[in-house]
Fold this sequence. Notes:
This protein has helices at residues 14-26, 37-44, 64-73, 75-78, 89-92, 107-122, and strands spanning 6-10, 30-34, 52-56, 82-86, 99-102. With 123 residues, it is an alpha/beta fold.
Amino acid sequence: MSTTAHILLVDDDADLRQCLVDVLEDAGYLVKTASSGREALRLLAGDDLPGLILLDLMMPDLNGWQFYEEKQKIGRLASIPVLVVTASRALGASFPGSEVLLKPFSVETVVEKVEQLVSRVNN
């Protein structure tokens, strides 16, 4: 895994967000965070695009579905892979081309899934 791999984590749960940041940074990733879909879109307006987006579905302001729809409309963002974080297998399936990380999950599962997706992008 490259220590320069950049991940955008979008989740309104501050405790879960910090836990995932700690886990992913320990695995060598650079992690930026957003607490809503709208904040995530603002971050994605810059030049430093992530190689992967971890996306919670249930958020205020602009939820995961709305964020995903907006992201897909922006050409330079459409190809960024998304790892949907949800407790519902059915809800995660509504994002074509995305992977799903079902809650509850282990630290090992998060790192494994992220490594799979980042390596696909880098190959």
